[in-house]
Amino acid sequence: MTLPTPQARRGPVSSSERALAPDLARGFMLLLIALANTPWFLYGQDTNGVSAHPTDGSVLDRVVQFLLIAAVDARIYPLFAFLFGYGIVQLYRRQIEAGVTDRAARAILRRRHWWMIVFGVVHAALLWFGDIVGAYGLVGLVLVWIFFRRMDRTLIVWSAVLTGLLTLVTVLGLVSLPFMPADMTIDQGGFGDTAAINAEENYGASVLARLAMWPLIALGQGILGLVVPVMILLAFWASRRQILENPGQHLRLLRRTAVIGVSVGLLGGLPNALTHVGVIGIGEHQAWIFTLTQSLTGLFGGLGYVALFTLIAARVQSSPVARSVPVVAIQAVGKRSLSSYLGQSVLFAPLLSAWGIGLGANLNSAGVAAIACLGWVVLAVLAYVLERRGTRGPAEAVLRRLAYR
């Protein structure tokens, strides 16, 4: 028998080794990410300074805005963070089980995360300032370095500490709500100024603007916002127990997490959504407080979505539905989540940005949401074709070649 050398590396996971739940969750997640990004392409419209969503529109537009704020905004990137952290442990475990040394396996992780940062910079420069691939590569480098070898108790304690810190900031904001002077103003540009990056007609100037914005998003959303580190630490813990691979053994935990998480996420998004559509009459000098509740409850909402998608996968995995075209297509998108995520920008940025066709200046919330759904369907069809051919996504193929050398 030939023993693996210390530098031996097994290749990336094969289709037969993949669990349905993570891929199904990633596939759904890509649709929700597309919807979450839509407001940023509606440049030139008035916002209230605390949301990227326009402050006007038809009844249908207002319904779309309400649903996105309550159920999608600040709920999907935590879901993405959890699945990313879960995959880190999966990748490491496969290498160790194949006989790769700890040092060599961790080197693969480091290369992968460094190249994700490079992917993120290129993605931001060329197409989309809100890139999260680089942000997650950055936080992956930091958290793997600090926490990857820590005990389970350490992961839970630090996730609780960071959640507690975020909760404290939110509570202090809510307590201060009645005492805010009415003449305190917010920069009305706020989100509108950020969305205005897509209003730049000169492509070269738009590249510079996106590159200037990307580091702030990578640091703010990736690390300083605290939500992503919390989700990745919890994902480390969950992946060690292979909860998504074996949902039948963890049904009680998954059901409780789904019910509590989704409920807290939806209820926590209501104040922001109701304020946006004018049901809650609160001054703009106070409305920003609900961005804090949005972020905190989005953490629970992201966990709830993970558990819900896992329960759905557990139900369909052993049934004929798992082999149906829609399920296979959604799973195919999940298997190619990086390619699908970048593919959204390839479809939407030239179509909606001012340096391209510029449809974003003339659309409303409902219209751009419809385009997002249609784009996701197009990418699902392409992913399905690649799945039938047994071909990996192009971005995954490049990243894996760079990471595995």
Regions with little confidence, pLDDT below 50 for 5+ residues: 1-8
> How many individual domains?
1
Q: Write down the overall geometry.
A: globular
How do the SSEs run, as a string of H and E? HHHHHHHHHHHHHHHH
Considering DSSP H and I runs of 4 or more, what fraction of the residues is helical? Answer: 55-70%
The biggest beta sheet reads: none
Count every beta strand, where a strand is a DSSP E run of 2 or more residues: 0
The chain-level structural class is mainly alpha
Distinct helical segment count: 16
Determine the strand fraction and express it as a percent band. under 5%
**Separation, N- and C-terminal Cα atoms:** 25 Å
For the CA atoms, what is the radius of gyration?
21 Å
Mean pLDDT: 88
Please outline the helices and strands.
Blueprint: H1 20-37, H2 59-71, H3 76-97, H4 102-126, H5 133-147, H6 152-176, H7 190-195, H8 203-224, H9 227-240, H10 251-276, H11 284-287, H12 289-317, H13 325-335, H14 337-352, H15 365-389, H16 394-404
Your description of this structure?
With 405 residues, the chain is mostly helical. It has one domain (15-404). The protein has 16 helices and no strands. The model is unreliable at 1-8 (pLDDT under 50).
